[in-house]
Amino acid sequence: MSLSRVAAAAQSVAPKVATKGAIGGAARVLRGSVTKVGKMDKTAIVSVDRQVEHPLTSKLVTRTTKLLVHDPTNAMEEGNSVIVKACRPLSRRKHYVLDSILDPRENQSLPDPSDLRIPLPKKKSK
């Protein structure tokens, strides 16, 4: 048996060990928006919307699922659109890890309300 055949056989027999945060195989990929950040270290809450058919009326109804997502670099901010992937359980409720941030929003402060006022036209005197 050649050395390459032995190495290939050893790789096929060796168990695949997932490291913390690693994803093996075809993982479930979801897109959602970040709802809450900063309460827990390296964890954020992501809301994922899906549409299901109502059993009685047959209309589409939007259902929301809140997921705890592992964010190793604390890069997520509230309002970001993100892609998350399923992974092994990292804690009791945390089973997803951050894959990418689609819409990074800068820390934008709200504009001053006085700047938003539209001046009313002055009444003409008679």
TrEMBL record:
Residue span of region Disordered: 104-126
NCBIfam families: PRK05610.1
Record GO terms (molecular function): rRNA binding; structural constituent of ribosome
SUPFAM superfamilies according to UniProt: Nucleic acid-binding proteins
One of the record's GO cellular component terms: mitochondrion
Domain of life assignment: Eukaryota
Organism for this UniProt entry: Wallemia mellicola
Official protein name in the record: Small ribosomal subunit protein uS17c
UniProt record, GO biological process: translation
Record keywords: Ribonucleoprotein, Ribosomal protein, RNA-binding, rRNA-binding
General function of this protein: One of the primary rRNA binding proteins, it binds specifically to the 5'-end of 16S ribosomal RNA.
Sequence similarity: Belongs to the universal ribosomal protein uS17 family.
Alphabetized PANTHER family for the sequence: 40S RIBOSOMAL PROTEIN S11 FAMILY MEMBER, SMALL RIBOSOMAL SUBUNIT PROTEIN US17M
